[in-house]
Amino acid sequence: MSGPDNHSANTLSMISRQDSGSAKGRQPGLYPALPPTSLLARAPAEGNLTGQSTFAAWEAQLLQKALQPLALQGRQPMPIPRSDRLREAYRVCAAITRQNSSTFYLTSRLLPKEARRAARALYAFCRISDDIIDRAGTDRLQKLDDWRRRSLVSGPNRGEMVPLAWSHARSTFGIPRRYAEQLLDGVAMDLTKIRYDDFTELAHYCYSVASTVGLMAMHIIGFDSEQAVPYAIKLGIALQLTNILRDVGEDWKNGRLYLPQDELQAFGVGEKDIQAGRVDDRWRAFMHFQIDRVRTLFAESRPGIKMLDRRGRFAIAASAELYGAILNRIEANDYDVFSQRAYVSGSRKLLRLPGIWWRTHMSRRTGI
Distance between CA 328 and CA 344 in Å, rounded? Predict the structure, then answer.
């Protein structure tokens, strides 16, 4: 996993929905066409760094994976009456969010109250799931299985604050349980898989720990139809790849390397170079290539924002742009992700918000 702001907990991508509790205009069984494929799976083949796949098979695989829970919603958690206990549970989730992710806490403030509370409950669920793997010591798989049972049970123990708020949020906004299960499956991968052969493998991991979060949050926001799903997948992968690029040095110290092995080899970068924290022309070229792909993912996910309920668009656009700004900081640090941590300060985040609001507003008006 990638740092204290890492994967699932920092990929909350979509949050404010219709009061009716279902996606407006959703057509059951609709399988949307994929957006155009570009750099998403552009892995250099046999040293050819300009080669580009005309179709990425992983996109179709992940789309199928994302659409299945919509067709198989299954049993939702039991409705939980409002109470002082529930309000306290949501306050605990807000505190967890504020302590661990200043970016998400800031952008979630842009949402309506009910959506804001549900988004922070989702964040807290993700945060605890991450922390079990990163900080729980021994018997982590057993602890994760126990957390799965407690956090996804239909009627949670009222003494457990986060499961209580999370169950209420899932019930209120109709969040498919299967997305949460997919996320926990992805989190568990960090216990057994510490290398990724190629981008296809990495994309599946990013979907599990990041895109699933966006798909769950999308139910809180509300969306026009399943046509929004492939864009949410791409945004989640872009956010997680940003985490991965930012946290290469930290992850290496924890025994993990998320960078595609075939691409490292194509650029002549070895694990000894990463261990040494070596920033040379090979590493700069490799990182430039990675950042180029992530920016393409961000760009190709952007049309999906217009498919969300209008009340949540600004928050999602802000999350994507503020997180994307980390890529600029990596470049400003000369691609040194070993001895420096790329981040965007709180003041810089606030300065960016008016421009983000304007672009989101004009996009809605002009259809850009």
Answer: 9
206: part of which helix (H) or strand (E)?
helix 199-206
Residue type, 247: D
Neighbours of 225 (CB within 10 A): 14
What is the Cα–Cα distance from 327 to 345, expressed in whole angstroms? 14
**What does the alpha-carbon distance between residue 128 and residue 18 come to, in Å, rounded to a whole number?**
28
User: What are the pLDDT digits (tens) for 117-149?
Assistant: 999 999 999 999 999 988 767 889 999 999 999
End-to-end CA distance of the chain: 36
| Summary count for the chain: helices (H), strands (E) | 16, 0
> How confident is the model over 187-243, as pLDDT tens digits?
999 999 999 999 999 999 999 999 999 999 899 988 988 999 999 999 999 999 999
Give the closest residue to 195 by CA, choosing from 129, 278, 265, 242: 265
Using a cut of 0.90, tell me whether the model's pTM lies above it. Answer: no
CA count, 13 A, side-chain hemisphere, 204: 16
Please check whether residue 240 is in contact with residue 7, taking contact to mean a CB–CB distance below 8 angstroms: yes
The structure tokens listed for 324 are: 């994307």
